[in-house]
Amino acid sequence: MKKLLFIFMAMAIVFTSCEDDDNISSNPSYVVEASDAFVVNYGSYSSTVGSISGFDTDNSKMYSYVFESVNGPAMNGKPQYAYKYNDKIYFMGNNADEIFYVNSSTLEQTKNGVTSDIVKPRFCVGSGNYLYISCYGGNVWNDASLGYIAKYNIKSNTVESTIAIAGGPEGLEIVNDKLYVALNYAPQIAVVDLNTEDISYITTPSVTSYFLKDASDNLYVSLLSTYSDPSAVTGLGYINTTTKELESTYALSNVSTNYTSIMTFNADKSKIYVAAGAYGESGNIFAFDTATKTFNTNPYISSIDGLNAVSVNPYTNELYVLISNSTTTTGKLVVYDENGDYQSEYQTGIAPAWILYKDQVTE
Asked: What is the pLDDT of the chain when averaged over all its residues?
């Protein structure tokens, strides 16, 4: 097992919307098996460690501290992002900076994390025997040239090489052996030919953060205005991956700058839900129709205090909204149906940021 900074009690605490707390420490394998979705809780950068909550949607239960109940110690750091690939879940860890993984069926961690050539990892995407990992490389907000892509071999568990990309590489997607890299500190998208590692760029009207891939392998990208790189244009961009051009932009004010799941397809990809809201104000979720290429005028869900992330359950089409009002108290997952009507809510760990669906296949 890897060296870990904190020891949490092996007894996990269960929070549900309708039942008293249950003691699950005697059977953590049941909890993992029963959970069909895992909430990734970042914690806080300077203090609180990250955690995993297990969501049993059939029985309407949320299980806390699932990682600890399986492995004993808590995570050594904060999960900036988590990615299911083949039979593992890979975590991009912050403070300490590392890549570590667990078995996707049991959540057991059996090897130490990798720290060599991993500095401020952000996001990853898999292809063959490799994960391509975006890394800030240091204080990118002071020196945008520090960024790079780490090419991580999942067989040898080593970073084989790095590809320098300035501008704060963030979200990633692969189409036709081309790695698309959203840049959070430059108004461009980098495109890396994975066969030659040649790099070209797509000019964008603002900085970008994450992608969604449609049924034709074209990409939607979030367009942002940030404190360090303000822009008058925010919303979604549409990238034609055949021509490798930004084909269209669709305006939406105050698209979220959170480093979380800020946009998500519904189950059949006919809609994209986007988190938006001015700094210091309640957030809203808007629905974008992928057929008409338009946003609804009114928010799909409005006035959400602490809006941190959104996700759609691909099996039920329910919308999950992750709430984080601070980095010192627990957050929550709020469930809405397809019509945007409130259904239920559950307590999570601190700063819930992403949701992984256990049986969902990585595209």
From this structure: 91
Average pLDDT over residues 211-236: 95
* DSSP reduced 3-state for 121: strand
CA distances for 313 relative to 41, 360, 361, angstroms: 18, 10, 13
Helices (H) and strands (E) in the chain, counts: 2, 29
Residue 233 burial (C-beta neighbours within 10 Å; 0-12, 13-18, 19+):
middle
Query: Distance between the two ends of the chain, CA-based, in angstroms?
Result: 30
Please determine, for residue 69, whether its predicted confidence score (pLDDT) is greater than 90: yes
pTM reported for the whole predicted model: 0.92
DSSP 238-298: EEETTTTEEEEEEE-TTB---SS--EEE-TTSSEEEEEE--TTS-EEEEEEETTTTEE-SS
Kindly state the DSSP code that residue 71 receives in the 8-state scheme: H
Q: Which two tokens stand for residue 348?
A: 């999570």
pLDDT tens, position by position, 5-17: 333 333 333 333 3
Q: Are 38 and 55 in contact (CB under 8 A)?
A: yes
pLDDT digits (tens, 9 = 90+) for 90-135: 999 998 899 999 999 999 999 999 999 999 999 999 999 999 999 9
CB atoms under 10 Å from CB of 305, counted, come to: 10
Q: Which helix (DSSP H) or strand (DSSP E) does residue 346 occupy?
A: strand 342-350
Residue 33: strand, helix, or coil: helix
